[in-house]
Amino acid sequence: MPRTRSISRSPSYRRRYSPSPVAQRQSRRSKRDRSRSPYSNSRSRQRSRSGTPRRRRNRSPVLRRRRSRSPTPRRHKRQRSKSTSLSPLPKSHSPSLASNERKIAIEKLRKEEEERKRRQQEAELKLLEEETAKRMEEAIRKKVEERLSSEEVKLEIQRRIEGGLKKLFDDVEAQLEKEKEAALIEARQKEEQARKEREELDKMLEENWRRVEESQRREALEQQRKEEERYRELELIQRQKEEATRRKKLEEEEEHANQMKLMGKNKSRPKLPSGNGL
Fold first, then answer.
1. Is residue 68 part of a domain?
2. Does any domain span residue 75?
3. Is pLDDT at 191 greater than 50 in this prediction?
4. Which of 14, 29, 74, 204 is 20 to 30 Å from 186 at the Cα level?
5. How many domains does the chain have?
């Protein structure tokens, strides 16, 4: 069965006769539910005969007052009920399915309404917070301007500026003194380090000179020893030469003496005849 919606209301009508959106939504739900079901007329007649109250009837005085003032929904209701009574009954839909659909639609509308209310409340709260913050900022600014324009605050500001400058100068002077002391300590440390390095260098040089002198002394002693050995060798060679010369001279003298002796003997011995000599 095609679904038909109720007659659209103008914004002025909603603003005038719907102070509560919840009541308006419930009214639209009840009309839509009645228009969907083909058994709406018969079921309403049965309920009226039995005297039992309707299931989802809204007894709000606002809705009763709105319905009484607007005849258009009633005419539409009568037209819809007439059309539904003349239309054939569908075979695919049952009352239980229609009830479930109504429940789902009602739940969906309820959630949408709650979400809309929540968003509206959040927007209103945000606007309220922004407005409050602006007002507080403006009030604080005015208060600060009033306080700053007073002579007492000006004197206090001047006093704090002078105190801050004095403190700044004192801090700078103390910092310079600390830096000066640190520089002196560093200079002393550097001087002490340089002195130690010089002492170590002097010790190293002295040790090197001592080693050089020791080496030179050892070399000189070795050279002297070698020269003495060579001198002794030369003396030995000279003595050997002299001894050889002396022995040679003695041998020559002895040989000469022997020759002289032989010559003396030859002179004293008589001459033998030549024949005897042969």
1. yes
2. yes
3. yes
4. 204
5. 1
Q: Write out pLDDT tens, residues 223-245.
A: 999 999 999 999 999 989 999 99
How confident is the model over 207-220, as pLDDT tens digits? 999 999 999 999 99
Hey, how many other C-beta atoms are within 10 angstroms of the C-beta on 79?
13
Instruction: Identify the domain containing residue 30 by its residue range.
Output: 11-85
CB distance 22 to 62 below 8 Å: no
Taking alpha carbons only, the member of 95, 113, 100 closest to residue 23 is 113
Residue written as token pair 């007073």: 150
Is residue 109 in some structural domain? no
- The residues, any chain, with a CB within 8 Å of residue 34's CB and separated by 6 or more, are 40, 44, 77, 80, 81
Q: Does residue 240 belong to any structural domain of this protein? A: no
pTM for this entry = 0.27
